[in-house]
Design brief:
Layout (H helix, E strand, L loop, with lengths): L2 H71 L1
């Protein structure tokens, strides 16, 4: 093999290695993006649950205040 052919061959191998590495990184990035989206979905659900619990607590407080007010008023 001539020096030029040998250099071209080595460059092709290096390009293939780098291309394979890029593909692996793309897979890793896609996987991480999917995990981030899943975590965001879980966070959104947790935030909705917190809001609902806060709403229920506020209703209980209002009911308690109304009960105490009625007892003090009677």
């Amino acid at each position: 093999m001539s020096t030029l052919s040998n250099n071209h061959y080595n460059q092709c191998i290096e390009c293939k290695k780098k291309n394979n590495q890029i593909e692996e990184y793309d897979k890793i990035i896609s996987n991480l993006r999917a995990k981030v989206i899943s975590a965001q979905d879980e966070l959104l659900l947790a935030q909705k649950e917190i809001i609902e619990y806060q709403r229920l607590l506020n209703l209980k407080r209002i009911n308690y205040i109304n009960s105490v007010s009625q007892l003090n008023g009677n």
